[in-house]
Amino acid sequence: MSRLLRIVLRASRTPLRPTSILYRRAYTTSAAPPPSDDTSPSSSLLIPSYLAQADNSPTDPSSPRGNHKYAIDILEKHIKISENGQEPFKVLFSTLRDACKCPRCVDPHSKQRNFRTTDIPLNIKISECNHTAHGMEVRWTNDIAGYDESHISEYSFDYIFNPDYERYEMTTTGKLRERGLWNKAMLKKFQHWISYEDYMKDDEAFSAAMRRLARHGIIFLKDIPNSRELVEKIATRMGPLRNTFYGSTWDVRTVPEAKNVAYTNQFLNFHMDLMYMNQPPGFQLLHCLENSCDGGESLFSDTFATAFYMYYAQRELFNALTKFNLMYEYNHDQHRYSRKWPVFQTKEMRGKQPDSDSEITIYRVNYSPPFQAPLTRHMINQIRDDEVEINFKALDFFARRLESPEHVFELKLKPGQCVIFENRRVAHARRGFNTSEGRRWLAGAYVDDEDVISKFRELRKAYPDIWRTREEKQREDARISRCNGNDISRLLDPSKTAESLRNWWER
Ligand SMILES: [Zn+2]
C-alpha cells in the first residue's frame, strides 16, 4: 500500500492541495513490510490513499509534473508500475480490471457501470499492455463473459493514482474541506453579503458566495423582494428543499402555546436544528419578512473555532467530546424522534512521525441543548464516574467559550435579508423579543449537506479560480500546516494586521 501512495505523490498531475501532500509525505513506511513476492494481495485501488501510508522521503515540489517515466512490468497476478527506479506500485489484475471506465464498461450517458465486480474472473490476465500519452492501455485474457478481444481498457496514471473521491473530500468542496475559523471580530469585519439579484442571476457572484459558505459556514443575502415564496427560490439555487414535518419551508412567528421553543418570544440559546433526526439538515436559511419587535436579534457562533481551540489548548476535554454521546429527542403526539450523536465528529489523519500525535480534522459538531434528552441511567452506567465528570467539564468548557462575547456574532435581520448557514457548524441563537408591539416573521428552509456539496463541486468545475485555495494556486510551500492550527494562532493573535487577516480570510 505504501507503494501506491508513493506513486500517488509523484504521479498526481492535478493540483493536490499542498497540505494533502504534506500529510502524505509525512507518513512513514517503516511499519509497512515491503511486498515480498508477487502473491501479496493488493486491493490498494479501493482504499482512499489518505487512509493508507506513504513514504517519508521528500518530494521535490519544484519537480515538473506530468513528466514522469513509468516502467510497466506484468507479473503473475499483478501489474507493477515503477517510476525512475523508485519503489514500484503493484495492483492485482482483477483490481485494475475493476477500474475500467471505457464506454463498454461505463455507459457514457448514464455513467452507470455495465458490469459487477463479481463478474470479473479471478484468473483474468493481462495479454498486452502499452504506454499511451498519459498512461497505459491494457488488453485482457479471461475477461468478463461477453467481452471479447476488442475490449481495451485505458488508464491514465493520473486517474489511477488520484481517483475522484479522494480529490473531492480534501479540496475546498469536500466533507473534509478546509475551513476558515472565525470569531466575532472576524465575522464582523468580513461577513459576506450578496444581493438577491446577484445571487439568483450572476453565476460568478453566486459561486463566490458559495465558496464563502463552504469555508466560513455563513453568508447573508440582501435586497430580497418582500415575498414569502422567495426563501424557496433562494434555497433551491443551492439544492432541493429538505422536507420535514415542519414542511418544505416553514415560518418562525410567535404563536400561542408553542410546542417548539423557537416559536415563542423567549431567549433561545445556542443550538442546531433537528439533531433528533437521523440526518439533520446541512444548511439552513432564514429569510426575514418582518422584524419590528424590540429584540429578536440573531446570534451565531462558530463551533469549529471553539472545537479546534479545545484541540490545541484542552486536548483532554476535546477528546472527551469526541466520545461523549448526547441523545436528542422530540416527543409530541404526532411526531416522535430521537437520535444520539457525539459532540465532535472528527477524522483522524495519520501522524507526521511514527510516534507523534495524529492530526485531526473536524467535520461536524452536534450540539443542541434545547432538544437534549435526559442522560439516562443506562448511558451513565456505561462509563465510569470520573469519565462522566470529565464529560460534564468538557461540555461546560465548550458551551462557555461558544457563548462568550468575543465569539458571538450578533445581527438583527432586517426585512429583505436572509442568512444561510451550515447547521452543524454554526450554532445559532435568538434574543428574546417583545411581542406587545411590532411583528416578527422569518421564513425558513433547509437544504441537505450532500446536495450543497454537490453544488460546490459543480461550481468548482465551472469557476476553478474562485474555488482553488491560494495554496493550490501557488502550489506553494508544503510546510503550511492544515488550516486549523494556523487559523487558531491567527485568531488568538491580535497583532495581525488587517491585511494579513484579509489574506487569510479570503484564502
Ligand atoms: Zn472496459
TrEMBL record:
Chain ranges of the Gamma-butyrobetaine hydroxylase-like N-terminal domain: 77-159
Family according to the record: Belongs to the gamma-BBH/TMLD family.
Key words, A-Z: Dioxygenase, Iron, Metal-binding, Oxidoreductase
Gene Ontology CC annotations of this record: mitochondrion
Protein known as: Clavaminate synthase-like protein
Pfam families found in the cross-reference section: GBBH-like_N, TauD
GO molecular function per UniProt: 2-oxoglutarate-dependent dioxygenase activity; metal ion binding
